């Protein structure tokens, strides 16, 4: 029997606003596996989301630890989600949780796209949304790591960080 995967949810900081009002705001994020959307709310108790990010066709980027070391700073724990022509900046409490979120989002997108590919293969139904065949990691000219497309199964890598998020409880 197949177990339902644990829900991916927790607090992240979302960069929003313009000009002097621009800043990070704490938001509760919940991944919806049926739509491959990452919804965000003001708090876990809210019934209606403030918005969502379409993860099925998203690419992710983040600053590598080498670039931060060159600047003599701690590696940042923020990453960008490039989706639907927009870039959303999210920040985790630490680098380990940032890596956890990136790996989980890639894994769940891979599972979503794979399930759509199976439906397409079986029924010759509509094509998959977005480009589910993007590569996993590349480096652009700015020196930022680019992460996109389906990931190989990163479960072994997640063992070190899996205890950080327990179901839908707030990260410790």
TrEMBL record:
InterPro entries: PH-like_dom_sf, PH_domain. Residues 5-110 form the PH domain. Signal peptide: none annotated. Residues 124-156 are annotated as: Disordered. This is TBC1 domain family member 2B-like. It comes from Leptonychotes weddellii. The lineage of its organism: Eukaryota, Metazoa, Chordata, Craniata, Vertebrata.
